[in-house]
Amino acid sequence: MRIFIVTALFVSAFFTYILLFPPSFLHSEHVYRDDEQRGLDEQIVINFSHVVAENTPKGLAAQKFAKVVNERSDGKVKVEVFSNSVLYSDTEEVDALRRNDVQMIAPSFSKLADLNEDWLLFDLPFMFKDEGEVEAALNGQIGKSLQASLKKENLKGLAFWNNGFKQMTSSQKKLAVPDDFKGQRFRIMPSEVIKKQFDLLDAKPTIAPFNRVYESLEKQEFDGQENTISNIYSKRLYMLQRYMTISNHGYLGYAVMMDESYWNSLPPDVQLLLSNAMEETTAWMWEHSKGMNDQQLEKIKSESSIQVHYLTEQERDKWKQRFKPLYTEFQKRLTKDIVEETYKK
Ligand code: SIN
């Protein structure tokens, strides 16, 4: 009997102690977590990967988009921007998006031709007179058709961003007439049109990712390359080249996108917030990108001894003459509506 009473007293003392001083493993989770911690758990993080420098139209637009989203969502959505191929190079980024390793990318049109040939329209030299014409095409039927082609690939197109027209550079020779290109080795983006363009100029084109251009030019693996002023300036390519021709021959634009399944997994209010922030950012970037390229051209001229040549009308006609087989081939290969719409302008 005495043993029973002692045991009962011990058990009741034990439970009284536990009630008064519960050990940490019995605490329910929420006792430890403050609001801030719970908020972080629910936060949607969107990693936005791209390959160019921050002081470029794409780099600045990505940062602006992140800022607008982060502020407007009151911390509920956080866009983190990774520039300069620190996460993925341009050859890896679409796969990374599909694997959900990143949630947003903005590849150049030339790099999407594997998905649909119609993106090659913008690589055809001298197809568009100015950025206004490109903008009208992208806001019209051509843009709709390209967005639809992304959807077929389970990609959600969010916007088209602008980086303007490309210029030619070389370490060997001033590039004025088609024969000046003969035998020179050029780095190119992965585009059949760009490859054929250089083939027609009797040059030697080789595909290389953007994050290798500086190093390859430095090692003299290439004599030249084509790019927009902002890419030539921000990656200091002009320091490795002696000649630049302002040719404005091919267009460089970007398709800003997410994986469609990831997009569909986002709550409707977040989708709306992202769409609005993207609309605002896109308007801002189209307004500022041309000015940025113009300013950086002046900086290139003042910071280096590169010789800048402005392609004359007569020289442009000679280039166009040389590119005739390219126009003939791709007018047949690209979607008929897209070609007709382009020639209508
Ligand atoms: C880019 O602007 O995204 C890169 C262009 C290039 O590969 O030259």
From TrEMBL:
One Pfam family linked to the record: DctP
| Annotated Gene Ontology cellular component terms | outer membrane-bounded periplasmic space
Say yes or no: keyword Secreted present. no
Q: Name one GO biological process term.
A: transmembrane transport
Q: Which Gene3D superfamilies match?
A: Bacterial extracellular solute-binding protein, family 7
Give the UniProt keywords, A-Z: Signal, Transport
Entry keyword Metal-binding: no
For this chain, the family text in UniProt reads: Belongs to the bacterial solute-binding protein 7 family.
Q: What protein am I looking at? A: C4-dicarboxylate ABC transporter
Species this protein is from = Priestia veravalensis
Upper classification of the source organism reads: Bacteria, Bacillati, Bacillota, Bacilli, Bacillales
